[in-house]
Specification:
301 residues, three-stranded antiparallel beta sheet, rod-shaped, alpha+beta, single chain, Immunoglobulin-like, 33% helix, 25% strand, 2 domains
């Protein structure tokens, strides 16, 4: 260690020590000796502007006269450039009044700066950990919610599959009935049916029958038929029927409408012609899963 006693302009002497061994070094720091005390702010930001360096000392005039002085110039050293430190912490750099005087750095002054920088960095780490833990909790809740939705989705898929099977069965019954009725020439308009049988326009069929004919569910021919703006489909449903649906199909068997029938006894459903393109349709009455009857209707332009 090279120590100057005095100042650069009035140097009293030079002390050179090599492998100096000391147990501790103390500086007076009693708060009673201090004034204008303020906390250190932005230590981390300021320290980031100071560049640590490695270096070798240049040859010194004492190198040839002091034993071991060559070790000072030959060994790799770590430290700061006083000029760099002065740009960030000018109070940690000293210089004698002589223009050619060397700059010196108060390395002990970096201790409180490093302390505050570490504290600030630790605070940032703690905040980041809290944010991460919060995100983890949120992610866990979302995963739980997703798993719950998956389970509900699987249940709905199963229910939908069961409904599809039921619809397929009903469509098969409808198609079978339509083909059978069409082969016998019974799927005609109300006017045509009445003219062919010498009856009035109130033809009925039934699939749900009670103890006598008065309790049989039946489906009537729509009136008017053909129709333009709207037509009414009459039917009879016993009070014992729990669920009834009127379905409308095109000639390819594709279902176009499904209307829940809430009335019981002699009731009816109105079809709005503006909701369908002109053409011929089958309509079917299903009560409690059983096919009551099927008819044809014609919608004109």
């Amino acid at each position: 260690m090279l120590m100057m006693i005095g100042s650069q302009s009035r140097r009293m002497g030079t002390v050179y020590t090599y492998n100096l061994d000391y147990r501790y070094m103390q500086q007076q720091s009693d708060v009673r000796l201090k004034k204008d005390i303020t906390p250190v702010d932005d230590a981390w930001k300021k320290l980031s502007k100071v560049q640590g360096i490695t270096f070798h000392w240049k040859a010194l005039p004492i190198s040839d006269t002091v034993q071991g002085a060559s070790n000072l110039t030959g060994k790799l050293n770590y430290g700061f450039s006083a000029q760099n430190v002065k740009e960030v912490f000018p109070d940690l750099v000293s210089q004698d009044s002589s223009p050619d005087a060397y700059l010196s750095v108060n390395y002990m002054g970096f201790i409180p700066l490093l302390t505050e920088a570490v504290k600030s960095h630790q605070s940032t780490i703690d905040s980041s950990r809290k944010a991460i833990n919060k995100l983890r909790d949120k992610n866990d809740k979302q995963e739980t919610a997703i798993e719950k939705l998956k389970n509900e989705n699987n249940k709905l898929k199963k229910k939908l599959g069961d409904l599809d099977d039921r619809v397929d069965q009903l469509e098969q019954q409808v198609n079978t009935c339509c083909q059978a009725n069409s082969g016998r020439g019974k799927l005609k308009s109300g006017t045509e049916t009445a003219a062919a049988n010498g009856e009035t326009n109130t033809a009925t069929t039934g699939a749900i029958t009670g103890d006598d004919a008065s309790t049989a569910a039946s489906l009537n021919q729509n009136a008017p038929n053909p129709f333009g703006s709207e037509t009414t489909i009459g039917m009879y449903l016993p009070a014992t029927v729990q669920r009834a649906t009127l379905r409308v199909y095109d000639l390819t068997g594709k279902q176009l409408k499904a209307i829940t029938v809430n009335g019981r006894g002699n009731t009816s459903v109105t079809i709005n012609g503006r909701e369908l393109p002109a053409g011929m349709y089958h309509y079917v009455l299903v009560a409690d899963g059983q096919l009551v009857g099927t008819r044809e209707m014609i919608l004109t332009e």
